[in-house]
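Entry: D-malate dehydrogenase (decarboxylating)
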Amino acid sequence: DSSFKIAVIPGDGIGKEVIPEGLRVLDRAGELFGITLEYQHIEWASCDYYLQTGKMMPDDWKAQLADVDAIYFGAVGWPETVPDHISLWGSLLKFRREFDQYINLRPARLFDGVPCPLAGRAAGDIDMLIVRENTEGEYTAVGGTMFEGTEREVVMQQSVFTRHGTDRVLRFAFEQARQRARKHVTVATKSNGVAVSMPWWDGRAAEMAQQFPEVAWDKQHIDALCARFVLQPQRFDVVVASNLFGDIISDLGPACTGTLGLAPSANLNPERRFPSLFEPVHGSAPDIYGKNIANPIGAIWSGALMLDFLGEGEGAGRRAHDAILVAIQKVLKDGPRTGDLGGKASTTEMGQAIAAALEAQAN
Ligand code: NAD
Ligand code: IPM
Ligand code: MN
């Protein structure tokens, strides 16, 4: 069945500018590859909605999303009017946790025609897949404050690592590596300083690795790993990390490939018990919102990842994904480009160019 219902949540800021370009490309891909997409447009999960109602989402948000196959998401956050922990814990982080989207897949690739901030790197030199744990770890609301407002103020925040949660993300990373040419996993760690969870995480990784004799692996302290992202990015294939480490390196990786504006992500519930969520890695970018200059490629590539996931990695979904990637690469090489890529094109012009490049492949 190639017919899917998608909840479309633009959110805030440039989320509202890049999502329409993503839909433009998805629509074209749907026509070309025989995939029917029915959209449910949603205005909640935004700071505007919060300012009107005092909530980020309606109480029945789960029921409203009960029959969607996936969520196509822009970005949430408008820190000028709503504190980030309120807007994000009230929307995106709730989706990830309640829908058990425990894998956050974040590829970073250096493409032809994209100015690379690292010296001496050419297209193809950087091709990594960050696999971020997405439901636990350092991201918790567990903790508290004592002696608040006094000199003796104490703030505690717990991290939570479960064997189930850690093993499943490690297993996913090794499975991904097994399907890739280089078959290598780097495990991000910090077992020298974070003395309880990280040595344990290393132990889980070592045990998981035994089940994948065909995959080579190493572990690197997160500080050294960040330095190597910049100095030797070609070393990395699959990188698996806890929630916070994965967050940090999934901005750093794309920055090394030119711009955060390119980076896509797939928040997956691989068992498909709940809808998965597809969104660019970047946020609402208040500094550039309203000018129609944001790069829509992160959103467009995320849409491609969505079609691939919905098509279960084969058939029309896979072909549509691959064709969108080809179109993106064509435009990056010799098409219009937004400011973050050194050009002057608008968000709309980029989206139109990618849709046209997709169309051209069919003719
Ligand atoms: P950001 O990703 O929004 O912006 C960081 C920098 O990258 C800015 O200078 C911005 O202009 C630039 N940038 C981001 N996307 C771009 C694009 N597509 N094209 C060109 N330039 C782009 O991060 P931030 O400034 O830390 O966060 C702003 C708000 O977004 C905050 O409220 C934050 O919590 C939220 N946020 C949301 C998400 C999400 O919903 N997934 C992700 C990150 C940040
Ligand atoms: C991301 C974002 C979110 C995260 C924020 C907005 C809570 O930075 O998707 O990478 O930290 O996961
Ligand atoms: Mn982030």
